[in-house]
Amino acid sequence: MSHLRREIVKVLFQRRTYVGWVGLLSIPFIMTIALRLSNEQPAEGHGPPFFSSIASNGLFVPLAALAFLSFFLLPLVSAMTGGFVIAGEAETGTLKTLLTRPVSRGGVLMAKWFVAVLYVGVGLALVGLGGALAGWLIFGVQPLTTLSGGQVGVTHALGLIALAYVIALAGMACIVSLAVALSSLTDSSLTAAVGTLVIVLILQALGQFSYFDFLSPYLFTSRFQDWFNLLRQPIPWRPIWEALLVYAAYVVVLVIFALAVFKRKDIVS
Amino acid sequence: MSEAGAEVAPVADEGLGEAQGACASRRVVLSTHQLTKDFKGLRAVDHLDLSVCEGDVFGFLGPNGAGKTTTIRMILGLIYPTEGHVQILDHRVPEQRLDALRHVGGFVDVPAFYDNMSARRNLRMLGRMSGEVSEARLDEVLDMVGLSARGDSRVGTYSHGMRQRLGIAQALVHRPALIILDEPTSGLDPQGMKDVRELVRELGRQGTTVFLSSHLLHEVEQVCNRAVIMNKGRIVVQGPVSELRPTRMSVKVLTSDQPRAAEVLGRLVGPTDVVDDGEFLRVAAGDDLVPEMVRRLVAEGIDVRAVVPAVEQGLEDFFLELTGDSSAAEHGGADPVREPAGVER
Fold it and tell me: Is the ipTM reported for this complex over the cut 0.90?
């Protein structure tokens, strides 16, 4: 717990922490205000997912924001956060300060990984809460029409939205873990973050070609929209569980890899 | 290789008898045993054996690139040795790094801190990683290094010298048995250097064991009781500082043909007792040999341009002679004939 407390304190003392969170929080507000002021609303089935439904129900704002951000901005935030974990501290020299104390490297890495995921989680929560608030204030909320055409009550819908965010966080944990793994290999946080983004983009590109369809179920990037299933009636849980399983497999393998590298790494920065 | 000391079986004490021998009745706080580190085929530290006794203020001297920082990183468990190991009290590094580091405080290279936090918060956070640290102790160490007035300022606003002082404070905060300081006066103004040296001396007087890396010979002479001089990853000479300073004399000679003159004088005093420092030939001899030296040079047709009378060779000269003479360093030391009394090799 002391590792966790220390890492949380360190994150809370960094200005960029708040810059990132404020940036994420602003996005659903910007989206909502832009749609409200726009003369043309996206036609049904056009534009980013759920955008066309926002004007009819503010509850779609957090869903639209999540779908919109999951494609690039959330992976970017996750890659940067995870990339800084080891390499960033190596750059500033504080990694050696930390490791000249009697702390286990494994404990340090796990705490850093957890706090990186927590940071992304708080960012996602701000997007969700900001989206719900902006949607309620500007478009009002009412029972949600699901993708299957039925309706669920506002409270039920809010529960589904929260669950969607949790599933999205599990997907982002894969990116954080990949960035942490690369961060343990290099002393440049930028290299770790850019390397992560390049890999994520390659995986996303692979998912776009039917030739690689056989890979698709195993690519975590192909699972980023599986939470859409929560908006069907009845909810098809199988793809959701499969997505969570794929996410878990990536996280476990990448974190074990990072641990193995970091425990044997020569700290020369 | 496990990090956790608890998971490691008791470690055999091979080589410890030798380390204990250097300390006589005092406890060995730190020793290295055939400590070696290779980086991509380059040997940075080469089978290093040294021992630091309880209460020592131990100087770790060497020019840049001698392997001092690499050695300190291995002592602190930051990098893994290619061969050999470090022993800190009863704990072997890297295997028992956690147990060993509970007894150690220090820094390597430039001390680094979390810039957005105050010095006090940095000290509290780092100190508590090594054990319980009271607020009174934080005040005490901040006062010791002269940072009381700025203890609550963000470290990001600190000058280089203030960071150095804070580095010393974080090394002391948990009252370790062994303090390792890597060039602690680097970047300090003269008053700051004086303060830090006085602090190190005071720690020594209190019985704290200090391992002080430096490339400043006079600093080591002022502060330390024992020292090693290192070059190219190997120990060139080690022993009590009082005995490290050579007592022999040297004459400086400038001629029209220095390489030939070195040969001629080498035949007189021995080839290893003539060193070309780039300006003069430094000949390990007293004034009584000067007439003969001049006679021989003239007989060989070499013009003698200057002869500087014999002076006691300073530690600075001795250091340059030892570390500048690559053949001596490569063979693990200078000619035994030139070894100062009481100095171990």
Answer: no
